[in-house]
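Long-time lurker. I teach an intro course on protein structure, and each term I like to show students one example going from raw sequence to a predicted 3D structure in token notation. This year I'd like something fresh instead of my usual example. Would anyone be willing to generate the tokens for the chain below so I can use it in lecture? Attribution to the forum is fine with me.
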Amino acid sequence: MRDWFYNIGNAVFTVTKGMYVTMRYWLVTYRADRGTFTEIFEYPEKPVPVAARYRGFHRYDLTTCIACDQCAKACPVDCIYIGKERVENGKGFRVTNFTIDYTKCLFCALCVEPCPVDCIFMGATHDLSCYSRDGCIVDFSKLPVDVAWGRATINPTAVAESKAITRPVHVGPNQ
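-- Reply from a regular --
Happy to contribute to a lecture. Here you go:
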């Protein structure tokens, strides 16, 4: 019987503690000096600060990729599609397209670890807003050079413009 009363008291205490935290954060929203999110960060002109270990949209360096398919094999949801063709007068493969479907991606970074040449890594970009699902399918080989090589941020405008390009930016390291 004593345990039953202890469990009831513990339940009441934890619910009260949770409601206290909820009320504290709820009342903060009514402070006069609080300001809006866009006043503090000036989004989208200045990016929102993210932690150093943040796993955002991928960065991909097409110049070092050897088309080994290790990242695609490591992906638990099969959202990475690599198109490759054999180099005629040499050894190895040439990357024709490197596509990531962000409607499936978990941002788990399991594709980054097995890459032998470190050509794919997680970036700090956190927003890729689009109005259709095909806007979430990004072909890194058709993006502009600065974006495809990971020197600039990936944004919806670059992705939309990349869908009109018919040839890849770079054909790979083994030409």
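Some talking points for your students: The first helix runs from residue 2 to 28. The chain has two domains: 2-34, 58-162.
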